[in-house]
Amino acid sequence: MAKTHVIVQNKMKLQEINTNCLPQHLAIIMDGNGRWAKQKGLLRAVGHENGTRSVKVTVESCAKLGIKNLTLYAFSTENWNRPKIEVDTLMKLLVSSLKKEIKTLQDNNIKLNAIGNLTNLPNSVQRELHEVIDKTAENTRMTLTLALSYGAREELLQAVKKITHKVKNNIISEEAIDESIINQHLYTHNLPDVDLVIRTSGEHRISNFLLWQIAYAEFYFTDILWPDFSEDHLYEAIISYQKRERRFGKTSEQIIP
Ligand code: IPE
Ligand code: IPE
Ligand code: MG
Predict the structure, then answer these.
(1) Is the confidence at residue 3, as pLDDT, over 60?
(2) Which atom of ligand 2 is nearest to 150's Cα?
(3) 219 alpha carbon to ligand 2 midpoint, in Å?
(4) pTM here?
(5) Is a pLDDT exceeding 50 seen at residue 1?
(6) Domain of 26: which CATH number?
(7) CA 176 centroid distance within chain
(8) DSSP notation for 124-154
(9) Which of 10, 79, 183, 208 is catalytic?
(10) Based on the structure, what is the number of domains in the chain?
(11) Domain for residue 214, yes or no?
(12) Where does Mg(2+) bind (predicted)?
């Protein structure tokens, strides 16, 4: 009985979504795994394990809805400062999830991409990641980008260094540097700007995520902890996004003719 009720509710929310105006690029800060576990008297590792279920549900729901680009913040440059045992657990979980979920990606025609300082990841993670990226390279329904060992400041720093090197070697002129040149040197060079950022767990901050790419993004914060984030919560976020007027500096009258 309860299950039927949930399905009906999901369907109602789904009907409220206008599939012609979906965010082109949705980015999610998946936060709250540790607190979810703590509330239940469990180890943080159990929180991370349960977080992978929400990843699967979110990825499949986004693909079904028709979202073209989904970026998930999975591990930040700052997360390297966590206790070694937690970092090791997260890396192991990454390897096992990639092994397990390649089928989900293939079945749903999803292409995997990764951004961040990937060479800092353990070899086992790099190997698995590159294997799944290669195998899903021709998929076209949605691009799923995992931000791993990712920090926006580091991303900007490496872009500045690459551009400086090219100017020094006369590959590009100083005058030619514009926003598009900067975009081309970011890890996200193949992706459009972010339209919507969702952060779970009640924290209202960006934590060094996609600073350049979110310049005009909409933000949706929810108190739900990541392991509890469901299809329904995703729909709620998209419905909220679709009710907003994105003016990009213009007046309301200019937007609605
Ligand atoms: C998000 O959950 C996962 C990662 C950052 C890897 P947290 O582990 O940050 O969970 P809280 O914030 O401690 O609850
Ligand atoms: C941000 O979450 C990074 C990821 C979700 C991977 P954190 O839990 O690390 O962020 P802070 O430290 O609370 O800002
Ligand atoms: Mg956190």
Answers:
(1) no
(2) 6
(3) 16
(4) 0.96
(5) no
(6) 3.40.1180.10
(7) 31
(8) HHHHHHHHHHHHTTT--SEEEEEEEEE-HHH
(9) 79
(10) 1
(11) no
(12) 31, 218
User: Which residue's C-alpha comes closest to atom 9 of ligand 2?
Assistant: 79
The answer as to whether 132 is a domain residue is yes
Q: Tell whether 74 is covered by a domain.
A: no
3-class secondary-structure state, position 84: helix
Q: What are the tokens at 205?
A: 């901050």
- Token digits of residue 250: 């213009």
Residue 16 lies inside a defined structural domain of this protein:
no
**151-210 pLDDT per residue, tens:** 999 999 999 999 999 999 999 999 999 999 999 999 999 999 999 999 999 999 999 999
Q: What is the percent of the chain where pLDDT is above 70?
A: 96
The pairing of beta strand 196-199 with beta strand 218-221: parallel
Q: State the residue range of the domain holding 55.
A: 22-67+79-150
Does 31 sit in the ligand 2 pocket, CB within 6 Å? yes
Which tokens in the block code for residue 174? 């100083």
Q: Pick the catalytic residue: 10, 18, 20, 31?
A: 31
Mutate to test the pocket of ligand 1, among 90, 200, 201, 222 (most ligand atoms within 8 A of CB): 201
